[in-house]
Structures are given as C-alpha cells and as structure tokens.
Amino acid sequence: VGDRCYEEGMYEAAKLLYNNVSNFARLASTLVHLGEYQAAVDSGRKANSTRTWKEVCFACVDGKEFRLAQICGLHIVIHADELEELISYYQDRGYFEELIALLEAALGLERAHMGMFTELAILYSKFKPQKMREHLELFWSRVNIPKVLRAAEQAHLWAELVFLYDKYEEYDNAIITMMNHPTDAWKEGQFKDIIAKVANVELYYKALQFYLDYKPLLINDLLLVLSPRLDHTRTVNFFSKDAMQYAAESKDAELAEKLLQWFLEEGKQECFAACLFTCYDLLHPDVVLELAWRHNIMDFAMPYFIQVMREYLTKVDKLDASESLRKEEEQVTEPTPIVFGQQLMLTAGPSAVPPQANFPYGYTAPGFTQPPVYGFNM
After folding, report:
1. Contact assessment for residue 207 and residue 222, using Cβ atoms and an 8 Å cutoff
2. Alpha-carbon distance 57 to 233, whole Å?
3. pTM score above 0.90
4. Fewest Cβ atoms closer than 10 Å to its Cβ: which of 39, 64, 118, 135?
C-alpha cells in the first residue's frame, strides 16, 4: 500500500506507512519529495545503503541544502566507483566550492582512498590553484600522479608540475619544465638536486646555457655539481664559443686579442681560427700575423689573411676608380687664344679684333705691323 501511495504521489500517506513498517530506504525517498531533508538524512542513516545515500544527497544538492548533502556525500565518496558520478553531479550544477568542501572533509575518513586525494588535487588545479601545492606536499604519495600531472600542465601550474615530476622520478621533464618556465618553476636548490639525476646528458649543456642566459653569476655553483658528469673537452669548447660571442659583442679589440692569445696558450688552434672570423672586425692583421707566425700555425690563419687581402684590394680598386672619375670631372675644355704680335686677341666676339680695312693706308694701329703688299703699286 505504501508503494501504491508513493507511485500515486500521496507522499504523506506513504510516509506514515513506511515509517510504520520501518522501511527506511523508501521513507527517505518519500521525505525527500516532501522537502523534509533532515528527516530524509536520518532515515538514510538508518537504511545505510549507497543507493539511498545518493538519492538523498542529490536531492539535498538540488534543494541547496549543502550541509546535509555533505553528510550524505561522506558515505558515498568512500566508494571509489561512486565518486565520479558524485563529482559530476556537483560540477554540472556549478557547485565547485561545495564539492571541494565535501572532499576536504572526506580526507580524514578511515576509508579515504587514492581517488579522493586525486580528484581534490584536480579540483584545486582548476578552481583553487593556490591550495594545490600544499595538498601535494602533504599527500603526493596518495594521488594518481600521472593524472594530476596532466591537470597541472593544463592549468599551467609549472612549479607544481616540477614537484610532481620530481616525485614521479621523471627528472628530465622536471629540468625541461624549469628551463622553459623559469619565472614560476625555477628554484636554485631544487634545480641542482634534480640536474644530477637526469638521464639525458644533453640536458647538462642545455642547463649550462640556461644559466649563462638567466643566472650567469651562479654558473660556478652549477659546474661544481656537473663537473663529475661533463665531458671536459666539450665543456671547454662550449664556453669557448660563448667567449668568442661575448668578445665580438663587446667591440673591444684588446679583449678579442687576449682571447686569441689564450686559445694559443691552451693549444686550441681550431678555436683560434674560429675566433678570427667571429671577431674579424676587431682584430688587427699585423697582430694576427705575428701570433700565427710565432706559434707556427699559418695554415689556420691563412683563410683570415685571404679575406683581409680581398677586402683591401676591393677598397683600393674603389679608390682608383673614384680618383679617375674625379680627374675627368675637373678637366674643362677652354677656347684656343689667337696672338697677333704682342697683343692677345680672343676669339670670343667680332669686336675683339679691329678690322684692318678701317685703318687709313699707311697707318698701323699700336702694337700691329702693317703687312707688306706684294704685286700691287699705289
């Protein structure tokens, strides 16, 4: 009869009947429909079945009775296979704060399991990132690290990601993350501890470059940690390259020449040759020639001198061409003068020379000689 009343929506009648026969599971469902949430929780406690707890919990969530919902939820989350449905019910309705409070309360339960710690860490990464680090430091051994790693990466929580990589013994990824996100993830002590454990040797040299770029004053501390593991020849070459680059960017000719001398003192002829071109504009050919001759390495310096010679010849050719052009432009064509006796007569105009026909016969203009007349008698 109680079931008939319940199906017909006669909840008050069903309540009396279920209470009379101590059917607490059905009574809890009936009380939920009546909005008597506290009584429903009490009946659920007496029924003590997961199904009843879920029904009452979800009803309390819909009724925004979150305190009562949490009481019910504590009896649900201890079952790993029920946890996902409970989390989805809260999240789908946007009750993230209430869900986090429920899982936080559940951590102290005797039957707390990995799923609870893992899901709470994921919720922290999404909604309360400031609390995730503390949670991981306390319970990292009780979370599903690969699952939390993905959540931390998606949330761009780089420091927490490094912490998890370290605990999961993925040291290479931890170092890469710190170098890619130094502002958030790099810590000096942690970096030096982890770099000594990496499997990929190439990360040693990437770490050196990282320190040169971001923490040059701490490079010696890093070298103390890595020195037993580094290939010393490769390391010296690594720093030689940076030294050449620094000297070239400094625009200091004296520094570049001292670097050349150091390479020769250390017997690094290849570095000497490379430096000639890296610092080409700073070096004096006479200094290079003397160093190469003194150390009997003219073969290493010859490409440099070929380039210098080519450059000088090009400049000389340009100067010759420029000088020839200048001389041609200075040459100006002048009119040819006409000289009569001691008087300079220009050809610039018709009035420059007085016409001889205008002089009387026998008269000679000053400075002029009357030409003789042949075969003509006056």
Report:
1. yes
2. 68
3. no
4. 64
